[in-house]
């Protein structure tokens, strides 16, 4: 195939071999991100697998290869930016494989019931007692009928809006992936009938493969377009509490469930990695994958998604026990939510400050609503993702976010390693994780960093905003970056005397230099995600090697910083929101935790029990 390609097109293309290491295969979400990046290059890019060649700029075409774990394919690029395209896509693909972790089967709590049991896989935890209700739907015509092109445009706009509203959540990428899929399938089609036929053909191709669970996304985008064509389908849901039994559900139907009396869901033909399952988890709806064929409709049953079972004929004792567990679960959630704006005090009345990690104005507003006391980590990469932002755009974005809180820590641009930008040229490195990234951009891309600092200083407008430099390994690096910041302020005649400058503790060398850093830094924030992987020399999303996140080595490293630092110390890694770790972190002296917006209430409640 490669020789034929060369004969047809002449000059030898740039080629790379890519291997599918994810247990989930090369499915819709990673394919969508891969294609979006491929489209930023002018060159022609193709993917070859088993004598079949398709465009790497088409979601539908790439999915048609049916690439599963263990498969490999060749990427070919031809054109003036072909080399840059293959290098960027190779790095992106490696990250997608690492991040696309297999969803583990949730551990089942031990529970004994008297009634008949149907076992299943847990999608989302919780306990529900309610009558069983089998799925039903109705189709009807509406007055608002758009032609195909209008319905398509409306559907694409809806998916973009949904993505923007949820982009920092696990489910956000689902909407972006569906948008890319819809765009790829409908491109150049001029009728709804042809579109419907294309969907049917694509679904038939996936049927029977390991990618069969993705057929639901094809059905979902078809239904979305049909809705705008005036053919609406909706679920028939009960007006009283119920447990829904369905073969499968469309991702778009989960929102309707969240606003209904459905308290739990049992699906027969889905997978733990399906987009429907991801959205059920995000919505917090107790749900299982199980064969419910023997469950009689309208019969009161127990859905125990903590133990992974349906109790079809529960005894009075079973019902009493399930009600008790359900009440305890709800009580804990309600207590945490109702007290989210209160101080987080330990049992000894020691106050722990709970801040939030945010990425944009939407997550900042969410953090404020969830009870955050400030921003412990503002990731600024969101502004730089697809194109280089102007100073004006940056200033506007930072100003909006800074208006949400008084206590704010903003991290300067952290790219490099597995985080690359399509427009940013970085030197090719044998090991990019140990090369140009984080604070080292001040040396290689000084203009970019000057513009970012300029925008941050303008948005701060004299306020005591904290500026944090990532991936610092030596005192000299920090001193030089801080001096760069002050030169930038002087250049634009800006007063930054109230601002503070600190470091993200991620590189192990810093552990031996804390006393030296004390002389020059104003604060420390420990990034446990990167610190852990550098301590053990294991990339934390590696598909086979695993890091012990609760190792004494990790906590000893954190304690070293706390014991030797004479400046404030916080933690902004995933460990900060881990219920198993919070008690230990407080015991060794941490006073400030920075977590995701959704983890704020639960983290505060966990602190109150320490």
From TrEMBL:
Any one biological process term the GO annotation gives: phosphoenolpyruvate-dependent sugar phosphotransferase system
Enzyme superclass (EC): transferase
Keyword field: Kinase, Magnesium, Metal-binding, Pyruvate, Transferase
Listed EC numbers: 2.7.3.9
Keyword Transferase set for record: yes
Cofactor section: Mg(2+)
Residues making up the signal peptide according to the UniProt record: none
InterPro entries tied to this protein: HPr-like (IPR000032), HPr-like_sf (IPR035895), PEP-util_enz_mobile_dom (IPR008279), PEP-utilizing_PTS_enzyme (IPR050499), PEP_util_C (IPR000121), Phosphohistidine_dom_sf (IPR036637), PtsI_HPr-bd_sf (IPR036618), Pyrv/PenolPyrv_kinase-like_dom (IPR015813)
GO terms assigned for molecular function: kinase activity; metal ion binding; phosphoenolpyruvate-protein phosphotransferase activity
Annotated HPr domain residues: 13-109
Entries under NCBIfam families matching the protein: PTS_HPr_family
Family as reported in the entry's similarity comment: Belongs to the PEP-utilizing enzyme family.
Protein name as it appears in the record: Phosphoenolpyruvate-protein phosphotransferase of PTS system
Biological source species: hydrothermal vent metagenome
């Amino acid at each position: 195939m490669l020789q034929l390609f060369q004969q047809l097109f002449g000059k030898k293309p740039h080629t790379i071999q890519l291997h599918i290491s994810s247990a989930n295969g090369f499915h819709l979400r990673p394919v969508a991100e891969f294609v979006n990046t491929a489209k930023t290059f002018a060159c022609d890019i193709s993917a070859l697998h088993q004598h079949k060649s398709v465009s790497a700029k088409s979601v539908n075409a790439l999915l048609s290869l049916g690439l599963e774990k263990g498969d490999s394919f060749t990427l070919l690029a031809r054109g003036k930016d072909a080399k840059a395209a293959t290098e960027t896509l190779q790095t992106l693909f490696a990250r997608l494989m690492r991040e696309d972790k297999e969803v583990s089967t949730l551990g089942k709590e031990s529970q004994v019931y008297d009634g008949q049991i149907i076992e299943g896989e847990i999608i989302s935890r919780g306990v529900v007692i309610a009558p069983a209700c089998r799925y039903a739907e109705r189709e009807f015509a509406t007055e608002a009928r758009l032609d195909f092109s209008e319905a398509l445009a409306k559907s694409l706009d809806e998916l973009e809006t949904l993505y923007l509203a949820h982009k920092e959540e696990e489910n956000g990428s689902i909407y972006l992936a569906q948008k890319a899929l819809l765009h790829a399938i409908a491109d150049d089609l001029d009728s709804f009938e042809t579109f419907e036929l294309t969907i049917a053909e694509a679904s038939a191709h996936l049927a029977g493969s390991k990618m069969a669970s993705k057929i639901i996304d094809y059905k979902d985008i078809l239904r979305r377009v049909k809705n705008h064509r005036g053919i609406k389908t909706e679920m028939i849901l009960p007006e009283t509490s119920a447990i829904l039994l369905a073969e499968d559900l469309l991702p778009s139907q989960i929102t309707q469930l969240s606003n209904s009396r459905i308290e739990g869901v049992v699906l027969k033909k889905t997978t733990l990695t399906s987009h429907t399952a991801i959205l059920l988890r995000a919505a917090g709806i107790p749900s299982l994958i199980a064969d419910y064929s023997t469950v009689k409709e309208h019969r009161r049953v127990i859905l125990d998604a903590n133990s992974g079972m349906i109790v079809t004929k529960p005894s009075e004792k079973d019902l009493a026990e399930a009600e008790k567990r359900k009440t305890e679960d709800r009580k804990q959630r309600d207590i945490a939510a109702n007290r989210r704006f209160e101080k987080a005090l330990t049992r000894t009345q020691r106050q722990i400050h709970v801040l939030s990690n945010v990425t944009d104005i939407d997550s900042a507003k969410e953090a404020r609503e969830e009870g955050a006391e400030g921003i412990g980590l503002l990731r600024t990469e969101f502004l730089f993702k697809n194109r280089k932002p102007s100073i004006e755009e940056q200033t506007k974005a930072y100003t909006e976010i800074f208006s949400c809180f008084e206590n704010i820590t903003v991290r300067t641009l952290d790219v490099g390693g597995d985080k690359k930008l399509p427009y940013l040229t970085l030197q090719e490195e044998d090991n990019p994780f140990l090369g140009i990234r984080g604070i080292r951009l001040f040396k290689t891309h000084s203009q970019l960093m000057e513009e970012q600092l300029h925008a941050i200083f303008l948005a701060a407008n004299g306020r005591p905003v904290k500026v944090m430099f990532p991936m610092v390994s030596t005192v000299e690096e920090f001193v030089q970056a801080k001096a760069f910041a002050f030169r930038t302020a002087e250049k634009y005649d800006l007063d930054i005397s109230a601002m503070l400058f600190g470091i993200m503790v991620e590189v192990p060398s810093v552990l031996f230099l804390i006393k030296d850093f004390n002389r020059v830094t104003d604060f420390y924030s420990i990034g446990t995600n990167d610190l852990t992987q550098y301590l053990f020399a294991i990339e934390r999303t590696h598909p086979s090697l695993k890091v012990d996140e609760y190792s004494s080595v990790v906590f000893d490293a954190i304690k070293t910083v706390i014991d030797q630092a004479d400046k404030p110390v916080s933690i902004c890694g995933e460990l900060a929101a881990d219920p198993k770790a919070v008690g230990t972190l407080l015991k060794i002296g941490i006073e400030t935790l920075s977590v995701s917006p959704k983890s704020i209430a639960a983290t505060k409640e966990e602190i109150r029990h320490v």
